[in-house]
Amino acid sequence: MTTPATPGAFDAIRMQAAQIGLFETPILHGRLTGGETLTAQLAQAIRARRDAADSLARSNVGGWHSATDMLDWGGPAAAKLADFAVKTAIRMSHFDGRDARSLNWEVKMWANISPPGALNMSHAHPGVLWAAVYYVDMGTPPSGDDAGGELFFEDPRFPVPLMRMPGFRMLGIDGQPQVNERRWPTQAGDLVLFPAWLRHGVRPHAGAGERISVAMNIDVRG
Length: 222
Ligand SMILES: [Fe+2]
Hints:
alpha+beta, Jelly Rolls, five-stranded antiparallel sheet, binds fe (ii) ion
C-alpha cells in the first residue's frame, strides 16, 4: 500500500532537461564547378546508349533505365564521375584501423532518362555502403513554384507511430516538428551522396524535356 502524499509535498520539485539529437543521417550535396564538358559528354553517351539498349525495370515508372554497366560504355567522363563519387564516399567514411583511402572501392553506375511524367518509386540500394546520384540535365521546369522531379528522402526511423497517428511528429532539437519526407532540390552538376539504406525516390517530372541523371552504388570490396 502506498503512502498518500502530503498535499503540496512535491511542489518544490523541478526538472532540468536538455534535448539531444541522436543518430544523424549524413548526406553530402556537392556541385561540380567547371564540369560542363564532362556533363555534356555524359549526356551524349547516355542518349546514345538509350538508342541502342532496352530499358531495365527498377524503381523507374516511365523513362529509360540503363543496365548497371555504365562504366563500360560511359567513356572517360563516366570514369571521372566515379572518381568524384569515391572521393566523396571516402570523405564521409571511417573504418576502424584502416585508412579509407587505402581500400579497394568499387562503383556500379547506371543512367536514367525521364520524360515528363516519369518518376522513381521509393526504394533503397541494399548491400552497399553508399548511393549517389549526379544530375546531368534537369529538363525544363514548369512555371510556378513546384518544379516536380525532386529527389526525396524518407525518414528511416520506426514508421509505426506514423501509421497509428499520422499527424504525430516528434519535435527536433530546433523545436520544430520533424518531417517524415524531405524533398531535396538539385540542379545540373550536383552530386548527392547518401547512405545506401536510406529510402528515396523521385517525384514526377512536371516540366518539359528529358531529365537525365546518373546513379551509383559505391562499396568497398573485401
Ligand atoms: Fe536510388
